[in-house]
Amino acid sequence: MKSVLPLLAVLAAASVFGIWFRHTRGEFRRKKTVDGPRLTSDQIGIALGERVTMVQFSSAFCSPCRATRVLLEQMVQTMPDVAYAHIDAESHLELVRQLNILSTPTTLFLNRDGTEVGRAMGTPKRSQVLTAVAAVQ
Amino acid sequence: MSSVTSVKSIEIDARGPRFSAAITTLVLALALVTGSVWVALFQAIVFAIGATKGPQFTPYAFIYRSLIKPRLKSPLRTEDVRPPKFAQSIGLAFTLVAIAGAATGTSMVFTVAVAAALAAAFLNAAFDFCLGCQVYLLLARIRSN
């Protein structure tokens, strides 16, 4: 099969996917159902935030997880009513299944009851975090 | 409860794996166009080195260190070696499937497997796509079922 057609097809498909992928990383997606799953402070290992809790799931084979963690840990310093929890996905597979987490990093945004309002996959930008935190009532 | 188990991890220059992914893209493109199992075998050996010893020990990393790195002006950014090492093992799996396909005369298997590895390498090189981020958790979920 000496043809450049398969090559062009792969590169075109991968480019379309790559552009879409990059565009959607970090984007805050609101839960479609009114009430997302509810998490307790026992499950996330810290007390819930007064208004918002950000719960980041990470894995060892994930470079952007570290960048996300650095950003969120830093941002939470200036937001007194927001808490931040970091969870190793691999050692919490039960929770990962329950919450249907498919990739890392995934950051959940919980309201004061611990109910998930929405989530972001990939490393969010600072502005995307602010949008997400503001979207939590 | 929290935090990724803090195994002492090795840090490498993050630009190295990205450069290696670009070379890998070219080599796999050549394998796809020519249908040559030898090119795929060469890449499989490179992947095997990257997956076992680490991506900083492949011939591509050597080219990066000796020719590219001295010319780069961008600041050094390091990353954990495990994500690119994991990606190398996925690449190895695909190229081994491709070689097995060629060896058993099923050129369709060869084409599809090389195409998959090529797509991943290209995404890594062009978009900084992190294969481990997308695949590892799914594998862990399947494995524990």
Structure description:
The complex is a heterodimer of chains A (137) and B (145). Chain A has 5 helices and 5 strands; from the N terminus they run αβαβαβαββα. Chain A is an alpha+beta fold and 137 residues long. Chain A has a single domain (27-135), classed as Glutaredoxin (3-Layer(aba) Sandwich), CATH 3.40.30. Chain A has a 5-stranded mixed beta sheet, with helices on one face. Chain A is elongated, with a radius of gyration of 17 Å. By secondary structure, chain B is mainly alpha-helical. Chain B has one domain (12-71, 79-143). Chain B has a two-stranded antiparallel ribbon. In chain B, helix 1 runs antiparallel to helix 2 (37-52), helix 1 (15-34) crosses helix 3 and helix 4 (82-103) packs antiparallel against helix 5. The longest helix of chain B has 22 residues, at 82-103. Chain B is globular and about 45 Å long. The interface between A and B is large, with 43 and 38 residues.
Sheet with the most strands, sense and barrel status of chain A: 5 strands, mixed
Element-level helix/strand string of chain B: EHHHEHHH
Widest beta sheet: strand line-up of chain A? 1-5-4-2-3
Give the number of domains of chain B: 1
Number of domains of chain A: 1
What is the name of the CATH class of chain A? Answer: Alpha Beta
User: Unreliable segments of chain B (pLDDT under 50, ≥5 consecutive)?
Assistant: 1-6
The shape of chain A, in one word, is elongated
From the spread of the alpha carbons, the general shape of chain B counts as globular
Portion of residues within helices of chain A: 40-55%
How many strands appear in the DSSP assignment of chain B? Answer: 2
Order of helices and strands of chain A: HEHEHEHEEH
Distance between the termini of chain A: 58 Å
Q: In percent, how much strand structure appears in the residues of chain A? A: 15-25%
What pair of chains forms the biggest interface? A-B, 43 and 38 residues
Going by CATH, the homologous superfamily of chain A would be Glutaredoxin
Determine the number of helices of chain B (DSSP H or I, runs of at least 4 residues).
6
